[in-house]
Write a structure and sequence with these properties.
With 386 residues, this protein is of the alpha/beta class. It has twelve helices and 13 strands. Helix 3 packs parallel to helix 11 and helix 8 runs parallel beside helix 9. The longest helix is centred in the middle third of the chain and has 17 residues.
Length: 386
């Protein structure tokens, strides 16, 4: 039997069957002192009458697992699509009837997420998925979850708590590839703008440190003439790059973890020539770079990591598979047609291909690629439109 099932059976044996109906009282444990929090349920139950399907589920002997997704930021396209994919995977075979997914969104502070996680732990779920506000601040509360037999899965912005399973990206390799690509395109010379990302986020710290180190060691002829904070959102990047362009008389490239689409718009508004740039694998970035014939590098960070986490969670709870505690989920980056060059790279690269890894006629908001494995997720599914 599974760990949570054993625990439930022990409670029943010790306390008697008469207490079986009191579990719902835990939902009232949240106090008014907690930060504002949004909750969404994506239960695997069918919306139909339930008669035949409930009988089918009972006859299969399956067990429904309670899984919470703790998220702390909704300021760009990536996080909502990550949540949409999690809800979709949980609602589809073989996970419908197995996963009762609930999503908790909180403010972008470790304190808010810790308080939310404490509330979730009191609900005693089978598993918690976490996109963390801090790599270290959440560790104690997640250790508490593990101690209670709750499976913890951290992805995207991962924690360092040893008991948690992790699906990270290798930010250091990505950062080195981005700097080496831009350094190669510029032939080791030029003036660039650099994105500092979002304060306190692990990816931002790593990118900035590795970019500066790589440029200093290998491309001393490249000078950083301005910095900006994209916050991984189009608006802040447009504002930041525009301000830098007003101060820098010459810009030959942009090293960003955010939005090429905003960079192109800023350059055009300033009457500047378009330059080589790096950015996130967002469909709008890819569309703009291909339309403008620009050399562009897109670092891979598919939002479907939440779906992979659900698959791994169910496998572990059912004890059908084992996984390493830390396992990078994606190690591929993409190049525009004009940016498809040979350079010193650590991760795999792939040129943009219409309807495969970017979508010329679909929403600019799509995080690409949108599907993986045997799934056939479409743009409307990922965008939550169906």
């Amino acid at each position: 039997m599974l760990r949570k099932s054993l625990l439930a059976m022990a409670v029943l044996l010790l306390a008697g069957l008469v207490v079986a109906g009191c579990g719902s009282s835990s939902s009232s444990s949240s106090s008014s002192s907690e930060p504002a929090e949004s909750s969404e349920t994506a239960s695997a139950e069918s919306e139909g009458t339930g008669g035949e399907e409930a009988g089918a589920e009972e006859s299969s002997g399956g067990e429904e697992f309670s899984v919470y997704l703790s998220n702390n930021y909704m300021g760009n396209e990536w996080r909502p699509q990550m949540e949409n994919i999690a809800k979709y995977i949980a609602s589809q075979p073989p996970y419908n009837g197995k996963v009762n997914l609930q999503i908790k969104n909180v403010e972008l502070t470790p304190t808010a997420q810790i308080q939310s996680l404490q509330s979730i732990i009191r609900e005693d779920p089978d598993a918690i998925m976490v996109d963390a506000a801090s790599p270290t601040a959440l560790n104690p509360v997640l250790a508490q979850a593990c101690a209670k037999g709750i499976l913890v899965f951290s992805f995207d912005q991962v924690v360092t708590e040893p008991c948690a399973y992790k699906l990270p990206e290798d930010y250091e390799k990505q950062a080195k590839d981005m700097a080496n690509w831009l350094g190669t395109v510029l032939k080791g010379k030029g003036k660039i703008l650099m994105d500092t990302g979002l304060a306190g986020i692990a990816i931002s710290t790593t990118f900035e440190e590795v970019w500066k180190e790589t440029l200093a060691e290998k491309y001393p002829g490249i000078e950083i003439v301005g910095t900006f904070s994209s916050e991984y959102a189009p608006g802040p990047e447009l504002k930041g790059v525009s301000q830098d362009l007003a101060q820098a008389s010459e810009v030959n490239g942009i090293l960003s973890g955010g939005y090429c689409s905003s960079d192109v718009k800023a350059l055009k508004q300033a009457g500047r020539e378009l330059v080589p740039m790096t950015c996130l694998d967002v469909n709008g970035n890819e569309q703009v770079c291909e339309e403008e014939g620009l050399p562009c590098f897109f670092f891979g960070a598919p939002a479907y990591v939440s779906g992979i986490a659900i698959e791994h969670i169910v496998d572990l709870l059912e004890e059908s598979k084992e996984y390493e505690k830390e396992e990078p989920y994606f190690e591929k980056n993409f190049l525009s047609k004009k940016g498809n060059i040979k350079f010193e790279n650590l991760q795999e690269t792939e040129p943009l291909t219409p309807e495969v890894n970017y979508y010329p006629k679909d929403s600019p908001s799509l995080i690409t690629p949108i599907t993986y494995g045997e799934w056939n997720m479409t743009p409307p599914i990922v965008l939550g439109e169906e």
